[in-house]
Design a protein that fits this description.
By secondary structure, the chain is of the alpha/beta class. It has 13 helices and 9 strands.
């Protein structure tokens, strides 16, 4: 096993000791961060969304801030403000929690649309404009956001433009009986988090991301991806199809998934497996009032011939 695979295996092993019974979801989350994308974890409260987000940040060895999004959270609470300091005889900028490597945006859809939109520039450009000055964010910069289902009280659906900035959306779901019994018998998850070491050292994440970029994608695989993109645009499955930016994001995620699985080339199965997580949150299913997009993606994949 080469060095990247050893590192990735160690990451997965550590994370699955904290989040039990969710190996597939944990692998998707690691895939997302290796691909350099922002991650949206959506599910009902209490199934481990915040715990998984904290475990990811600690295991990747990144500095992180946690912000509990509420209806009264203001954009300045995220980005920071300038405060007049008498000693310096001028205003001094005090950066907010956004100036970190991993921002854990807890219950992001409980904030107002104004505050949600304040994240857009940060997620896309890795910089923010505060009081007329552009300020770069630390590198790398990830947003790991948790979201409650829209039907819960006090939630505001994320705008389409912001959903498009998330590379992947994953759902944890309830644990099976065996995993829940392990949770009931085991150590408190918060105590496990406190003792969680960093698997990656500074610079290793960037090195792994460069390996992801070098993963090969053959012409038949690219043809298959384009067939799927065309299928989302023909009006049969979805109200509006995927953009070219979404296609690039899917390919990047497929390359990361191939590396996680120990390969340096993308297989058609990588694209098929990653498509629901990378595409469903960008799509509205025909005749489903916005529900069932992931199921519709899987049906579309099943109807599209493999190369």
């Amino acid at each position: 096993m080469d060095a990247p695979q050893q590192t990735i295996s160690s990451l997965l092993h550590q994370l699955t000791t904290v989040i039990v019974g969710k190996e597939a979801q944990v692998r998707d989350c690691v895939t997302c961060l290796l691909a350099g994308g922002h991650l949206l974890i959506e599910d009902v409260p209490g199934v481990g969304k915040t715990t998984l987000a904290q475990a990811l940040a600690r295991s990747f060895g990144l500095g992180f801030s946690r912000v509990q999004f509420t209806s009264d959270l203001m954009p300045s609470d995220l980005m920071g403000v300038s405060v007049y300091e008498r000693e310096r005889q001028g205003f001094v900028f005090h950066p907010g929690p956004l100036f970190t490597q991993v921002l854990l945006a807890d219950e992001i859809n409980r904030a107002s649309p104004k505050t949600q939109s304040a994240l857009l520039e940060a997620m896309e450009e890795k910089q923010v404009s505060v009081e007329g000055e552009t300020r770069p964010l630390p590198q790398p910069f990830f947003v790991i956001a948790t979201q409650n289902p829209h039907e819960q009280l006090g939630t505001h659906p994320l705008p389409e433009s912001q959903l498009d900035r998330f590379l992947m959306r994953v759902r944890l779901g309830y644990p099976d009986r065996g995993a829940e019994r392990e949770l009931l018998r085991g150590q408190d998850r918060r105590a496990l988090l406190d003792g969680l070491p960093a698997v990656l050292q500074p610079g290793q994440l960037q090195a792994l991301q460069q390996v992801v970029q070098a993963v090969a994608a053959s012409e038949p695989v690219l043809n298959y991806l384009q067939d799927l993109l065309d299928a989302t645009r023909d009006g049969r499955w979805f109200v509006q199809g995927l953009s070219p930016r979404a296609g690039l994001a899917i390919l990047r995620a497929a390359k990361a998934r191939a590396l996680v699985d120990g390969r340096r080339y993308v297989a058609p199965d990588d694209i098929a497996a990653i498509l629901p997580q990378t595409a469903a949150h960008r799509l509205v299913a025909v005749g489903a009032a916005g529900r069932g997009a992931a199921e519709q993606v899987r049906a579309m994949v099943a109807a599209t011939p493999l190369p």
